[in-house]
Amino acid sequence: MNRIRRGRKKGGAPLLDARELRLEDDLAQNLTEDLVKNHALIQDIFRNCSDFVCHEIVSADGRKMLTLYIEGLINTEQLTQQVIGPLQQTPLPKHDTTADGTITSLQESVLPNSSVKTVTDLTTLTQSVLSGHAAVLAEGAAQGLVVSLQGWKPRSIEDPQGESYIRGPREGFTEDIRTNAILIRRKLQTNRLKVESFTIGELSNTKVELLYVEGIASETILAEVRRRLSRIQIDGIFESGYIEELIEDSPYTPFPQIQNTERPDVTAANLLEGKVAILVDGTPFVLLLPYTFWSGLQSGEDYYERFMISTLIRWVRYLFLFIALLFPSLYVAVTTFHQEMIPTNLLLSISEAREASPFPALVEALIMEVTFEALREAGVRLPKQVGSAISIVGALVIGQAAVQAGIVSAPMVIIVSLTAIASFTIPRFNFAVSIRILRFPLILLAGTLGLYGITIGLICMLIHLNSLRSFGVPYLYPVAPFSMRDLKDVLVRAPIWKMTLRPHSTAPENETRMPSGQMPSPDRGTKPDRKE
Amino acid sequence: MNIKSAFVTFTLLSGVLLSGCWDREEINDIALSMGGGIDWTEDEKLLGTSLFAIPSKVGVGPSSGGGGGGEGGGKKNFFVQTSTGENINDVFQKQQTKLSRRVFTSHRRVLVLGDRLAKHGIKNILDYYGRDPTTRLRTFVVVAKDSEAQEILKLRYPIERDPSEAIREIEQLISGTQVTIRDLMLSVSSEGACPIMAAIEPVTVGGSKEKTLKLSGTAVFKDDKLAGYLDAKETIGLQCLTNKLKNASLMATLPGKQGNLNVVGLDMKRKLKFTYQGDQVHIQVDLKGNGIINENNTNLDLSNPKNIQIMQNAVQKTLQKHIQQAIDKAQQDFQADMFGFGDEIHRYDPKRWKAMKDRWDEIFPKSTITCAIQVKITRFGMSGPPLQLQEQEVKTQ
Amino acid sequence: MGSHREQISTAGLWSLMLIFNVASAITVPIGAVAGQDVWISILLALAAGSLIVWTYSRLLESHPGKAISEIAEGLLGNWAGRVVGLFYLWYSFHLGSLVLRDFVEFLSAVALPRTPIPAILFPILAVVVWGVYLGVEVLSRYAQTIYLFVIFEVLVSSLLLFNQFDYRNLLPVLDKGWSPVLEGAIQITTFPFGETVIFAFIIPFLNQTDQVKKISLRALLTGGALLLLVHVRNILVFGGLTSKLTYPTFSVYQYISLFDFLDRVEPLAIVTWILAGYIEISVCLFACAMSLAHVTKSSGYRIYVIPLALLMAQLSRFIYNNHAELIETAANAWPWYSLPFQIGIPLMLLLVSVFHKRKRTRTKGE
């Protein structure tokens, strides 16, 4: 790893200044047999780090030793019991007093803990100490030992906040990458679930893991993901959003091209479809790719409910997608350009309501939509206790007072609230946001060219969507390019026993998910199949 | 990538900047014309009447309901504008000068033609309605029987929003001669049919001065000029022969003062057969249909099939009478083929039609039309014999 | 964009051709001279159109990956290739201007009567340029996204009009004899069916080169069926008025009224017109730019897109003065003017190509 980092630095722009370069030189050195020199080097590396502890002990046979760790990052109790105790009490076998033998026998007989590893260079040693290991250096040995003694407690596994389901597992990812990987591993207990590890971020040294099921995930997509991950150069990664923005296909688009999820079950199911997951240490949001337009309209719960219900719900979502996107602009277009297109009685109602309103419909729509966005934003940011106040104020101010005062017309309030409800039916937050943003240009187009403007806007959107790809998969797949087979999970939610094949776009090499003909019936298996 | 985003911005900007919103018009800047009427004045000019909704008084929203118990009496939720001119656009141009909002005609669903205009001829005014993109071909057309269109449109019709709405609803509810601009254009331009349309007549409400309106039979045109009116019974005859009698109600009298009965849901299907003898056309009309008895003012017990037979005969006879009246009017009074028989010949025997179409106006009045009617009574309501009669009064046989 | 070669799938080509066939022809009257016999004209035109389509797709199938001007170059030499390229450059350019004018004319008539023409013209032109710039692959996928909407919309509107159908409107059959019907058939053959000849610049991008004939004939038949449905529906509703109306389909949509509530659905007609017309204009512009690139031997067509689009917009504005002229040209001049492009050149090239092949096999045999 050291080699990679050094190598990249030569090619890339200098990320570190002179003082840091001296540190780099310290880090580049190997451990020596001289404990005092080692001590000095390490002290130099960790200078001004008050949370760094360097503790000198004497072993059972009188040898000087150093234990190094970051305070709080390791469990001190375990350190005393499992490292310092044995070192002070168990003498080394006599014949192993040679320099190299010391460490080996320490590892073998004194500290027979599986997580103990030998290190020879300072870089690894530093890295290990920083990631929650305790290091032990012994007099006369050019090697050190690191023991994993993680002492800080990750947040416990909780119901995911952003993606809570009525039916489905109640566990969500946490900030700890190990926990997250284990959560997935527990769902997919197979050696074919592969975990490839990357460290990204010059200073944050964030652990990033690439998960996929070997034999299902497409090799071309995998190679592409590896390539894009390994070319990232940045000082720090604090959320998977950083990774997302650094590896996506088209940056200039409102549409997300990578899915994020907090749910291990969703991740596991997607892995089985041939998708690839990227875990980032420090965030519960796992990235899933490739992503298509339709994934934005699917919820994991669709697969847990009965297929008819889920199909119906999906259709409702498609309908509301259109409402969320088009309703305000259609209202503006129809009331200011094409009054002939409103049914007569409805037009009379609208015209009565609009009779006194001071703003043109376009301005009214913009004001109301912006107000709604503000309300929503305020509601999200505020603590829960205050959040309810915002909704009351919003409902009273916008819903009632504004209409009664004649500042906005009642139909517009209905339009805006229906649009708001519609935008909340979109299950993926990042997708819903992009739809909400697109509403505004559409309103403007509707206000200038009416229905023609809206349609032009729609064509723009369709052309743009059709030009997008996520890791080689066309964004609107399986509608365009058309695939009848994969439509069964888009147009409807086919019953589980019908979805015998994996999507062709993500799992072209291994498509069979299960043998066909598993439609349940009381007779299945007891009688010979009628066809045979 | 840059070019792509540049194009998006370009499109959006060109949309926003180029446009001065030429077609943009707020709802409160248009005057919604709900109905229109055309009259022919005595000094030979067109008089156009438009009925506009007053949005603040339409009375659907919460703001208008404020009055609570307030009687709707004084409130008028529409107003009427008239002006005269040489042609329709001239009329509307002049009307516009009296209005603070732009006239918006796309929601005009009823067009009333004045009696005098109908007699004068309507061909000259129709072009506007076929050309104007805001006029819907589905607009209903009616004739103001013995009155003027403006009189009809100025009426107050209490249950509906305005008289035009009343006309539309009445047409949809009971008239078998719903005629839209499409139908009018088709029949005016056709070689073998005369335009017909419903006639609307203002009537006074029992004793009071207030007037409302009623559907009063059918107006029949010869070419484009009003030839005369049919009353309700003749209209039934007309509808029988034009295959338009659907769900009708008919009163029939039994012979020999036995009383009367009423049939509803009367649907008649026609079949035409033409035979030709030189210039003489013989038209055989076979009518078959069924209906339901909903009133029986005789002492006959309807649970007896024989009595049903008597009833059917009475219904058939009544229909026959209505049809004959209609035929007589068409052949003798109007000399106009309001049944569209010429069109039928054109459709099924185009060669013969070619030979006779120029003389159809002479041939039609001389042609013989015979009718064979078969009405089946399928149901007779909730009771067999009349419930109010004592048993000995009921005639079962 | 960039390294990978653009490719369209069979389904993509099919939907592009389908939309191209029906885009304006479902709204504009076709074969109006035939009156209520337009269905006969459409059927006859389908047969004649199949011949046209068969000819050029046979030619393109035997020279996979090559556009018609490249084929001419291969068969008759550099000079002939350029001439053929120039012919189609003009044809697609002219066609594009006509379609563009039609597009704007309809919108101006029914939706934006007081908006100046440039304000309608430039937004669509900008989107067309963008789409053509992104390439034929994106266009074909766009067609795949909307074709279901177009078909669905036609079916639903016909269903809503069911209570207005009068089957006697189709009678009498052949009232005025065969000549108007044949005249209508010729008009329909050249517009819209024969116009698909400009796909000679798009078909080379198809990924399955042996499917050309099958796909283009299938697209023609589907499009023909759709047109048949639409125009028979219009006749059934409007009878003798249909051939007198400027936009019978739009008027038919205005006529829809069900339960006093499901009415005023003409936005559907407008939206379909825009969504589908977009394809028609884009395909013309694409073919135009491609043929210019062939003529000038440039490596890419993209640099020509914007200038050609602007020229097209200019031509579309003074190509005719009013609608009457358009109808007049479309009825009388257009069929004879376009036949050389639609069948003449492809047939000639096909014959030459067959002759060449035969000669080659004969020399080989000896």
TrEMBL record, chain A:
Annotated segments matching region Disordered: 505-532
Name under which the protein is recorded: Spore germination protein
Segments traversing the membrane: 315-337, 387-407, 413-431, 443-465
Domain of life: Bacteria
Naturally occurring in which organism (per UniProt): Tumebacillus lacus
Biased composition (Polar residues): 507-519
Keywords: Membrane, Transmembrane, Transmembrane helix
UniProt cross-references to Pfam families, sorted A to Z: GerA
Family label: Belongs to the GerABKA family.
Automatic annotation (TrEMBL), chain B:
Compartment(s) of residence: Membrane
Domain Spore germination protein N-terminal, first and last residues per copy: 23-201
Gene3D superfamilies, A to Z: Nutrient germinant receptor protein C, domain 3
Sequence ranges assigned to domain Spore germination GerAC-like C-terminal in this UniProt record: 216-381
Annotated keywords: Germination, Lipoprotein, Membrane, Palmitate, Signal
Membrane topology type: Lipid-anchor
Protein family per UniProt: Belongs to the GerABKC lipoprotein family.
NCBIfam families: spore_ger_x_C
Name recorded for this polypeptide: Ger(X)C family spore germination protein
TrEMBL record, chain C:
Membrane topology: Multi-pass membrane protein
Entry's family note: Belongs to the amino acid-polyamine-organocation (APC) superfamily. Spore germination protein (SGP) (TC 2.A.3.9) family.
InterPro entries documented for this protein: Spore_GerAB
NCBIfam families in the cross-refs: 2A0309
Location within or outside the cell: Membrane
Keywords, in A-Z order: Germination, Membrane, Transmembrane, Transmembrane helix, Transport
Descriptive protein name: Endospore germination permease
Keyword Isomerase appears in the UniProt entry: no
This protein's record includes keyword RNA-binding: no
TM region(s), chain numbering: 12-32, 38-59, 79-100, 120-139, 146-165, 185-207, 219-241, 268-289, 301-320, 336-355
Major location (coarse): membrane
